[in-house]
Amino acid sequence: xxxERLNDAHFSRYPNRTKADTKTDTCNVFIYDAEKxxxxxxxxxxxxxxxxxxxxxxxxTRLKIVYALTLEDELCVCDVAAIIGSSTAAASHHLRLLRxxxxxxxxxxxxxxxxxLQSLRLAS
Length: 124
Hints:
By secondary structure, this protein is mainly alpha-helical. The chain is built from eight helices and three strands; from the N terminus they run H-H-H-H-H-E-H-H-E-E-H. It has helices at residues 2-13, 21-24, 34-44, 51-57, 60-71, 77-84, 88-100, 119-123, and strands at residues 75-76, 104-109, 112-117. It has a three-stranded antiparallel sheet with strand order 1-3-2. A hairpin with a 2-residue loop joins strand 2 and strand 3. The chain starts with a helix and ends with a helix. The model is unreliable at 1-7 (pLDDT under 50).
């Protein structure tokens, strides 16, 4: 009974999928191409280091900041705060995370702090 409820919940999240699809969209036996799997496994292991980058960019606010920084050479923390509609403390927190990931660099000019994208990291 509980499994039926789980299945019904699953299908309510995916309204285009039917219970019959679950029987036809998977293999009935487990046979794989060892050469292909070995080759592709090595290739997909290259993305392992990208997971933290995507985790940082999965936040909508940080993604907005990165996008804004692609449109301008550099922005001060106050500019970023105004763009994203937050406090300077919140903007600074997001910028610091981007800097710690190697996506952005900063420079201080008197009482102002300016951030820019670190192009080498994004290009590689």
